[in-house]
Design a protein that fits this description.
single chain; mainly alpha
Length: 100
């Protein structure tokens, strides 16, 4: 797909059951969107009983929003039959680890 500026939008790689091949394509795609850290590290954890600063709260909130966007990419890449087996996963990291 070409936008008005002539930039070609990257296509989300479809998962065809061959994880190793798809993993390389999807990792590159998520790096290009600056979302790969969510796959590797997940969302920063909130420590119970610890008061967060405004900056720390913003980092966590931003990570949660990016995680939702990344999950959307994964949901678009995964066939329905496979998706149904991982719907109980609530983060990008847990979905990715389940696919492995």
């Amino acid at each position: 797909m070409v936008t008005e500026s002539g930039f070609v939008q990257p296509v989300i790689p479809k998962f065809d059951g061959h994880f190793d091949h798809w993993c390389i394509l999807m990792e590159n795609f998520l790096h290009s969107k600056e979302y790969w850290s969510l796959v590797e590290d997940g969302i920063p954890a909130e420590v119970e009983g610890v008061q967060l600063t405004e900056a720390q709260r913003k980092v966590i909130d931003d990570a949660k929003l990016k995680d939702m966007k990344t999950k959307n990419y994964l949901f678009q890449a995964i066939d329905r039959s496979i998706l149904e087996t991982i719907l109980n996963k609530d983060t990008t990291k847990s979905i990715w680890d389940s696919l492995k």
